[in-house]
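Structure first, sequence second, as always.
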């Protein structure tokens, strides 16, 4: 488990509060506190857990604020370690909650289905991907993993300024990790809050959902967003404040490293597909991961498969691979290699 760092004064009223994510290797998520007339504004809120809430409240006290003084929170994206406490924050302070419209739409769609329906959908996807029955049964027996945060109050679009007097904080839309992921630019301080989009040492998960969907292109969006943010006119002087790990500079270089990492991954997959058609599970289980495939839990394997599927989707868009086989068990193949009959 990661060591949770202390609350830190970043100067001129900006603070970082590490909010723990209990029982999770992520360790913590940074919640940033920004000064504004009428009360502080938060970037993200943290995970929905009593320990997380206590850390947020205690951290705010160290910044000189009570939780009831918070006037609003901008959520970088809908994932639970960033948005889990929005409902409790709103109850305690009356704060508004802002999020990009694309992530608001994801939450709306999720709310149309019960937890049981969502689990059944994942099991169906895993079956079509070729997952072995043991993995599917393990997932079926696992505790429910779906947690939707409380819905936001406000939509914050690309380039828009956060509606808080005395705070010139603007949204930079960076889709990929989620459809509505936001970075936030505080120009007067040359600060960029990068959420999960740009991290100093690791790359965020970029997945295709459903696994075999032919709609959208999340990895293509992510790489375009990396390229765009790396070309910001201020990139060479920005201090980047991510949601995890440590703050860093050299935004353009880091964005290029992330792009290169995924391009290498794409090339590796394309070479494997030249050997013949493969199911999603066969390809995913034969790739290299930070943790050996045999040691990965079923949920982690599902996430790995979604990441592989996002790479396959981009290779399809580039015209390098084709999808064939049956609808119940689709396979992917290189246009330069052997194919299954249509």
């Amino acid at each position: 488990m990661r060591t949770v760092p202390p609350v830190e004064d970043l100067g001129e009223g900006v603070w970082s509060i590490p909010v723990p994510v209990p029982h999770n290797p992520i360790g913590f998520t940074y919640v940033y506190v920004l000064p504004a007339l009428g009360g502080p504004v938060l970037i993200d809120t943290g995970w929905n857990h009593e320990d997380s809430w206590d850390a947020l409240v205690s951290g705010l006290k160290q910044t000189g604020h009570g939780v009831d003084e918070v006037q609003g929170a901008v959520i970088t994206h809908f994932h639970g370690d960033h948005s889990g406490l929005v409902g409790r924050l709103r109850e305690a302070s009356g704060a508004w909650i802002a999020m990009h419209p694309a992530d608001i739409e994801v939450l709306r769609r999720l709310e149309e289905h019960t937890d049981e329906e969502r689990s059944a959908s994942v099991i169906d996807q895993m079956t079509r991907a070729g997952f072995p029955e043991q993995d599917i049964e393990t997932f079926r027996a696992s505790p429910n993993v779906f947690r939707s945060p409380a819905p936001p109050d406000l939509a914050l679009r690309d380039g828009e300024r956060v509606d808080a007097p005395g705070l010139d904080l603007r949204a930079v839309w960076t889709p990929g990790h989620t459809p509505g992921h936001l970075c936030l630019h505080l120009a007067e301080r040359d600060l960029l809050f990068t959420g999960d989009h740009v991290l100093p040492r690791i790359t965020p998960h970029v997945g295709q959902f459903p696994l075999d969907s032919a709609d959208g292109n999340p990895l293509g969006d992510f790489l375009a967003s990396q390229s765009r943010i790396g070309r910001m006119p201020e990139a060479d002087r920005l201090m980047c404040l991510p949601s995890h790990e440590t703050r860093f500079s050299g935004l353009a270089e880091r964005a290029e490293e992330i792009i290169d990492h995924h391009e290498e991954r794409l090339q590796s997959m394309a070479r494997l597909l030249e050997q013949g058609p493969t199911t999603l599970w066969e390809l995913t289980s034969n790739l290299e991961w930070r943790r050996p495939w045999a040691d990965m839990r079923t949920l982690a394997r599902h996430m790995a498969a979604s990441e592989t599927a996002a790479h396959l989707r981009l290779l399809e868009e580039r015209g390098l691979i084709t999808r064939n086989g049956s609808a119940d068990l689709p396979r992917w193949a290189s246009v330069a290699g052997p194919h299954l009959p249509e």
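Margin note: The first helix runs from residue 50 to 62.
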